[in-house]
Specification:
The complex is a heterodimer of chains A (269) and B (594). With 269 residues, chain A is α/β, with parallel strands linked by helices. Chain A is 29% helix and 26% strand. Chain A has a single domain, classed as HUPs (Rossmann fold, 3-Layer(aba) Sandwich), CATH 3.40.50. In chain A, a hairpin with a 2-residue loop joins strand 9 (155-165) and strand 10 (168-174). Among the domains of chain B are: 10-83 and 154-237 and 337-414, 3-Layer(bba) Sandwich (FAD/NAD(P)-binding domain), CATH 3.50.50.60; 93-148 and 238-335, D-Amino Acid Oxidase, Chain A, domain 2 (2-Layer Sandwich), CATH 3.30.9. Classes of the chains: A alpha/beta (269), B alpha+beta (594).
Chain lengths: 269, 594
């Protein structure tokens, strides 16, 4: 029988992907215009990590899932109204920035402290999950540093699948060409930075929500300000990804024709 | 807990349907009374003894504050519930500083103006009363004024309130969880709780509740089902509606309009269409129109009219160079008090706009809706403390009695007949409103709703019947609505798309609409009488659809694309055959600025 896992997911919030983002320069550095007014969601990378964690915990009896999240408390509370309906977890909340312009080094330090302070955490059973590219605007550095600060050397990034096998866990990491690298890890502790995984978003479950929320509100009330200041960090430039849209409605176009158009369009870039 | 395909059930004390202003008022007031200062339950749960009342609220939209409209409100009820509320803490809120009514002349010559309106237009032009074709009336009637009021983004306000309620820890609000129906309880005409919407093959959970609070708005599925099941009180009907549509705009720099500026407009793009502009802090404005049900056009798209509205010279000189941040649309129940359903029954109570609280004279609904919720909370607390069940009799004696003696009821009686005159013409409607407002409802002008005109009849003075038929046929064959083509043919100029504020409707869906349709839910708009749809000539559902989500389909039955639906609900009340089933579903607008 597999020893139960203690799965800690690091994940925070990002603006709802449907929003129009506009970088601005605020007194404290770069920011997104009206970011606090925009609706937020759990970072999709971290969301995949959380759903994979819950799926694993369901399969390995006795396992438990924590979500460690650093974000402005009010925004985090709001996002939890949606996330808490998905899967069972216990929230560890840190009141801090989640703008994506925060120094990933400091973010990692704050998250590592919070993970280490979880009562009853057994590091020999710890799987540290997170989004592959979370909390770093795609740099993929934060989770790695959290793991290093916790002294976890076994690290896997771009993970799409975890399977409990005899002698450990089998992990599929994304590599070039749409292929996966297969590794066998003898067991925890390990860091897994998730890509998209294979699980669909779980359906909302009112009972899960009711149970989760009993712990979430006290956790939010206890949340302390995270020591993240981003002092000494400077940004040379901030740009949004260039977006182009050219819509045409064409019916009954052969697949090969669509492919040719896409290739030609990419060639124009 | 999930995935076995069996319907599960859960017991709570109070279940709420929809998180709009009414439910926000209910939960705000209720949450004050659930716990003692020492942390012990002030009212004990019946389903979880020893715990406080178990209160849950299910909202169909993907987050709280999505898809609700922006307003100017006197905020009497809101302030009564939240006396310490500092509106400056809420983004996009501003105290009203300037309010005016502007009569807009027709700058393009396409507006359908009656003889009396043409005479008014001529007088205004002759006396040079206008500026940029807008005549700023020297007087704002007191019933319309919002003295001491506040301009709000309801999205931001609702997010703020939801945060406050949730942080109390005694009430749970769950967005993204549509309610399919209120199921019957043990007695006839009662409600025993709610059934959540199925998610794929997973049957929606049954939530058993001693009290079900229905605040799902004017086109809410649960409220409308109850109306069908129970009927309406004698003389009450849902017959007057309006479609409100608006843009949220980043105004051009430098800022010219002070936060808290409020304009009400009349006269353009069509005389029947009212307009508004509210200025928020940060040089942002909400600008929009109301298309009422007495506007008899069979191609009454709000989007095209909204574009003509914002490009009217009086508004355009302030809006030109602005950028679209967001847009949205919403149905308004304009029957007011005469649209009031049975407010209570065994195990349920109705609050908010769907309960007939909107004041059609003052043009306000948010504060009224909030107040009905707050009144129900006072009643529910009283009953729960006294250990009395939520029966129809008990709710009548408490909630309904409180409501009948409230300012909401008093004002709605004044407003009751104020808009009847519009059914017989715009000028008559204006005079009727003024009469009702200035005499506190003692006088008004009557009028009965008339059906929407046939397409050929409506355009008879501008387009030959054969040409109308050709245009409509061509559009149907192309799978599009015909409103744009008919408006073009009847003299409306093309919209000069600027890629900033003026977009095609499809582009606006992407730029400012932010619409999402999560997987796992069935289509919430269904055409339940194919025979009636096939025989329907005008197909108002297509022409009125705010998001172009309904289009001509095969065999004459419209096709629905939920990826574009903004949940305005206009299809329901525009269908002359009541052939559309409009269910609750997740998704819709993702904007908290509306």
């Amino acid at each position: 029988m597999t020893t139960p896992f203690q799965i800690v997911v690091c994940g925070s919030i990002v603006p709802d992907p449907l929003q129009t983002l506009e970088p601005v320069t605020a007194p404290g550095g770069p920011a997104l215009k009206n970011e606090m007014m925009l609706p937020a969601v759990l970072d999709p990378w971290a969301g995949h990590a959380l759903f994979e964690a819950a799926h694993l915990a369901q399969r390995v009896a006795g396992s438990k899932v924590w979500l460690v999240a650093m974000a402005p408390k009010a925004k985090l509370q709001q996002v939890m109204m949606t996330v808490a309906q998905k899967v069972p977890f216990e929230l560890i909340a840190l009141d801090g920035p989640a703008s994506g312009f925060t120094d990933s080094f400091e973010t990692a330090a704050a998250l590592a402290l919070a993970v280490a302070a979880i009562p009853g955490l057994d590091r020999s059973r710890l799987l540290l999950f997170g989004g592959w590219e979370s909390a770093s605007r795609g740099a993929g550095s934060t989770l790695q540093m959290v793991g290093e600060r916790l002294g976890i050397g076994e690290q896997f990034q771009g993970v799409d699948q975890l399977t409990v096998v005899d002698g450990g866990i089998e992990i599929l990491e994304r590599i070039e060409g749409g292929k996966h690298q297969v590794s066998i890890c003898t067991g925890p502790p390990a860091v897994l930075g998730w890509a998209t995984g294979h699980l669909p978003e779980p359906r909302n479950n009112p009972q899960v929500g009711m149970v989760n929320m009993r712990g979430i509100m006290p956790s939010l009330q206890r949340a302390k300000a995270a020591p993240v200041k981003s002092e000494g960090l400077s940004f040379t430039a901030v740009n949004l990804p260039k977006q182009q849209r050219a819509t045409r409605v064409v019916k009954d176009m052969p697949v090969a024709g669509i492919a040719r158009e896409i290739v030609a369009w990419i060639g124009e870039e | 807990m999930s995935g076995d395909g069996e319907r599960q059930a859960m017991d709570v004390d109070i279940a709420c349907v929809g998180f709009g202003p009414a439910t926000a008022g209910f939960l705000t007031e209720l949450s004050k009374s659930l716990m003692n200062p020492d942390g012990s339950p002030a009212i004990e749960s019946r389903v979880m003894p020893g715990m406080p009342l178990q209160v849950v609220c299910y909202e169909r939209a993907d987050d709280v504050g999505f898809g609700v409209s922006g307003v100017v409100t006197r905020a009497r009820g809101i302030r009564a519930s939240l006396p310490d509320l500092d509106f400056s803490r809420i983004p996009m809120a501003a105290a009203v500083v300037d309010e005016k009514v502007v009569y807009l002349l027709d700058p393009v010559g396409a507006s359908r103006r009656s003889l009396s309106l043409r005479m008014i237009d001529r007088t205004v032009r002759t006396l040079r009363l206008d500026r940029d074709l807008g005549w700023e009336l020297p007087y704002v009637p007191p019933f319309l004024r919002k003295d001491g009021g506040v301009v709000l983004s309801m999205g931001q306000f609702m997010q703020h309130v939801a945060g406050e309620i949730s942080s109390s820890g005694v009430v749970q609000i769950w967005p993204g969880m549509p309610v399919a129906e209120a199921f019957p309880g043990a007695t006839e005409g009662s409600v025993g709780g709610i059934r959540l919407t199925d998610q794929g093959a997973e049957p929606g959970m049954d939530i058993h509740a001693a009290l079900t609070v229905i605040g799902d708005g004017p086109v809410g599925a649960v409220g409308r089902q109850l109306d069908e099941r129970l009927g309406m009180p004698k003389g009450h009907r849902h017959r007057e509606w309006a479609l409100g549509m608006k843009f949220v705009v980043d105004l051009p720099e430098p800022a010219e309009l002070a936060p808290g500026t409020v304009w009400h407009t009349i006269g353009y793009p069509e005389p029947e269409i009212f307009g508004f502009l509210y200025v928020h802090p940060g040089n942002v404005a909400s600008v929009g129109i109301f298309v009422p049900s007495w506007f008899r056009s069979p191609v009454r798209t709000a989007y095209r009219y909204l574009q003509h509205y914002v490009t009217h010279p009086y508004l355009w000189r302030r809006l030109k160079g602005g950028k679209l941040r967001s847009w949205g649309a919403k149905s308004l129940e304009e029957s007011g008090r005469r649209g009031e359903p049975f407010l209570v029954g065994d195990g349920f109570a109705r609050i908010g706009e769907g309960s007939g609280s909107t004041n059609v004279l003052t043009g306000s609904g948010v504060d009224e809706a909030w107040t009905t919720g707050a009144l129900l909370a006072q009643a529910a607390v009283r009953l729960a403390r006294d250990c009395r069940p939520f029966t129809r009799e008990n709710l009548e004696r408490t909630y309904v009695t409180l409501r009948r003696s409230s300012w909401v009821e008093r004002d709605s009686r004044i407003a009751e007949k104020s808009r009847d005159g519009f059914h017989r013409g715009v000028v008559r409607g204006m005079v009727g409103m003024a009469l009702a407002g200035l005499t506190r409802g003692r006088l008004s002008l009557g009028g009965e709703p008339r059906p929407v005109a046939g397409t050929e009849e409506f355009f008879a003075r501008k387009i030959a019947a054969a040409e109308v038929r050709r245009i409509v046929g061509e559009c149907r064959a192309k799978g599009t609505s015909s409103h744009d083509a008919l408006m073009d043919a009847s003299g409306w100029p093309a919209i000069p798309f600027d890629g900033q504020l003026l977009f095609s409707q499809q582009d606006a869906l992407l730029v400012g609409g932010k619409v999402q349709a999560p997987a796992g839910f069935a289509d919430h708009v269904q055409f339940r009488r194919r025979d009636l749809c096939e025989a329907c000539d005008v197909k108002l559902c297509i022409e009125m659809c705010s998001g172009q989500a309904i289009a001509p389909g095969s065999g004459g039955v419209p096709a629905f694309d939920r990826e574009k639906c903004v949940y305005c609900g206009a299809c329901v009340w525009n269908c002359p055959h009541a052939a559309i089933a409009f269910q609750a579903g997740a998704g819709g607008l993702h904007s908290t600025e509306n």
